[in-house]
Amino acid sequence: MLLVPCPWCGPRPEVEFRYGGQAGVAYPEDPDAADDARWAEYVFMRDNPKGPLRERWVHSAGCRRWFVATRDTVTHEFLE
Amino acid sequence: MRLEQGGSRIDRSRTVHFTFDGRQYEGFAGDTIASALLANNVRIVGHGIYTGRPRGVFTAGPEEPNAIVQVRWPNGTSEPSLRATVVEIADGMEARSLRGRGRLDGEDRRRFDKKYVHVETLVIGGGSAGRAAASNADGRVLLVDDGPVVEPIDGVDVLARATALGIYDQGYVLVAERRPGHRTEGRLWHIRARRIVLATGQAGGTYEAVGREYQRRLGREGLRVELRSSAGSIENLQRLLGGQADVAFVQGGTYPLVSDPEGRLRGMAALYREPLWIFYRGQPLTDGLASLAGRRVAIGAPKV
Predict the structure, then answer these.
(1) How far apart are CA B243 and CA B262, in angstroms?
(2) Which domains does chain B have, with CATH numbers?
């Protein structure tokens, strides 16, 4: 079980958190102009790196804060 | 059969009655099913699953491959696939030898609980290496061991009858503790440890494992240790005399086989006793080892 570093509460067990997916996926700048491919890109496509990944977490069973953490997907280690 | 005296894990003043394969037996408090059966001259504890050949107790602990039993506890719960070398006997317990998987039957009315702890150092294994690691560690230290007895150590929490089930991310360890006679019969420990010491021993290459342990331990003190493998004790002694090594593991009794007229070699410490196994072909020896007089006996690697 991971130890997730909440910026407010410090390291807490994984069960207290919900995962929010990859961080930094931007909403299309001009939604009206975006075609299906652009929407599909926004809605479905995510990076799947072997290594560090920036991702969002929410401390749902704690302070309820959303935050971004970088996790190594190979070692499950949180970086920084 | 049982020795007339001795045995630090049993209490001879308290007898316990249990059954095995339908027959009533008597043991002492602290006996495992296996030790109580052996005390009652029960040598066959099960049968192989393919050909049905008889099987005896093979080990003295959780690594037991043969003595697998189904146990019906006094409260009616029946639990399959337990190792007779681990389970302690209790009054009214009904054990039976198991061939194959066994099955859960009856309602499980036992109670279990769980506990969360955080420690600086978790030591898994209560042998000499584990105990040394635990007493050298700083901060909050917990030592867990599979066996029924762990001698207390100053400044260390010890947990007996506790099996480490798995090591997960970021120092997370699950440990199952058996608690016979308590209101809750088992406890699952969720342990978060900064550092984990595995002192569970390794299969094969005992001396190498011991050497690695020293290397690791001394490395922490800033001493660099280089491991060199060799053909055996005699080569080790010769390397010591020749200055190619500073410290060596040597089997007891091999020193007279090398020449050291100036008496330069010194023993530092005895690590453990080692039984000597002698195998031979042919008829049973009538008067023990003396029958081997005049024969050639292979004792391991020859002189180098």
Answers:
(1) 14
(2) 11-97 (3.10.20.440), 112-257 (3.50.50)
The answer to whether residue B5 neighbours chain A at the CB level (below 8 Å) is no
Q: Which residue has the tokens 């690791």?
A: B216
- Pairwise CA distance, residues B245 & B237, whole Å: 9
ipTM above 0.90, yes or no: no
Residue partners of B121: CB distance under 8 A and separation at least 6: B133, B134, B137, B138, B139, B140, B141, B142, B193, B194, B195, B196, B197
pLDDT tens, position by position, A21-51:
999 999 999 999 999 999 999 999 999 999 9
* pTM (whole model) above 0.90: no
Q: Are B2 and B12 in contact (CB under 8 A)?
A: no
Between CA B27 and CA B29 the distance in angstroms is 7
Q: Taking CA atoms, what residue in A is nearest to B191?
A: A1
Contact assignment for A3 to B168 by CB distance below 8 Å = no
